[in-house]
């Protein structure tokens, strides 16, 4: 059985290269049939909003919309910190289809007693 993957992101579009790398790591896990969760905090919560994950970080880099679409198609999900989300006065109705609000307890519940590989960006 493959372990789960949790990618913790605090960085948003203020550092698009870091976001791209995080998406590539998450996508690699999800497309290799690992249950994959991106846990979003701080500025990264905006990435769970429709129309935010846009642009291309660098020449030759895949575009963020393409990465986000592939992540969803591979079954990847986002868990956005509700404290960070609400502090930014964001609209929950604008979350992408594979995103929900939830903090550390829902993250630990998602992991459960199974092993999980973690990355942090």
Task: Describe it.
By secondary structure, the protein is α/β, with parallel strands linked by helices. The chain has one domain (4-120): DsrEFH-like (Hypothetical Protein Ychn, Chain: A, 3-Layer(aba) Sandwich). Helices cover 33% and strands 19% of the residues. The protein contains 4 helices and 5 strands; from the N terminus they run βαβαβαβαβ. A 5-stranded parallel beta sheet has the order 4-3-2-1-5, with helices on both faces. It is globular and about 35 Å long. The relative contact order is 0.26.
Q: In brief, what are we looking at here?
A:
With 121 residues, this protein is α/β, with parallel strands linked by helices. The protein is 33% helix and 19% strand.
List the helices and strands and how they pair.
Blueprint: E1 4-9, H1 16-31, E2 36-40, H2 64-73, E3 77-80, H3 82-87, E4 99-101, H4 104-111, E5 116-120
Parallel strand pairs: 1-2, 1-5, 2-3, 3-4
Helix pairs in contact: 1-2
Give the uncertain stretches in residue-range form: none
Count every beta strand, where a strand is a DSSP E run of 2 or more residues.
5
Helix/strand class = alpha/beta
How widely separated are the two ends? 26 Å
List the domain count as a whole number.
1
CATH topology: Hypothetical Protein Ychn, Chain: A
Supply the CATH class.
Alpha Beta
Structure annotation, total helices: 4
Assign a percent range to the helix content.
Answer: 25-40%
Strand order of the largest sheet: 4-3-2-1-5
Strand content: 15-25%
User: Secondary-structure element order, as H and E?
Assistant: EHEHEHEHE
CATH superfamily: DsrEFH-like
Average pLDDT number: 96
Second CATH tier, the architecture: 3-Layer(aba) Sandwich
Q: What is the alpha-carbon Rg in Å?
A: 13 Å
């Amino acid at each position: 059985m493959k372990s789960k993957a949790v990618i913790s992101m605090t960085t948003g579009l203020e550092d698009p290269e870091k976001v791209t790398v995080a998406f590539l790591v998450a996508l690699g896990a999800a497309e290799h049939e690992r249950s994959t969760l991106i846990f979003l905090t701080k500025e990264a919560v905006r990435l769970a909003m429709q129309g935010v994950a846009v642009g291309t970080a660098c020449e030759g880099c895949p575009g963020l919309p393409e990465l986000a679409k592939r992540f969803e198609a591979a079954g990847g999900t986002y868990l956005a910190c509700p404290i960070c989300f609400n502090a930014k006065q964001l609209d929950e109705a604008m979350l992408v289809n594979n995103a929900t609000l939830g903090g550390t307890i829902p993250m630990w519940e998602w992991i459960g007693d199974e092993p999980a590989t973690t990355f942090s960006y």
